[in-house]
Amino acid sequence: MSMxxxxxxxxxxxxxxxxxxxxxxxxxxRDGVMIIAxxxxxxxxxxxxxxxxxxxxxxxxxxEAGLKVDPRCSYSDAWIxxxxxYQDLRA
Length: 91
Prior knowledge:
This protein has a five-stranded mixed beta sheet. It has helices spanning 50-65, 74-81; strands at residues 6-8, 13-18, 21-30, 33-40, 68-71. The relative contact order is 0.19. It is an alpha+beta fold. 26% of the residues lie in helices and 34% in strands. The termini are far apart.
């Protein structure tokens, strides 16, 4: 599934809209570490890989920006465990 994911830097959020319904990932920045605090995908659009796409967008941004990542939300922590190519970013 291809979707447009927007990085809303001022809001510390990655967001997308699928079928008119918004989904997002919220993060904090602290001392060069992106702390993923919450990934929210409403049930109406769940099961389509949206959360994974949001998390990957956050990790890709962190890599490009030279940040480490602390995946505090349970979904982002499970995601990084399934993607060993991103382990080097773990704070």
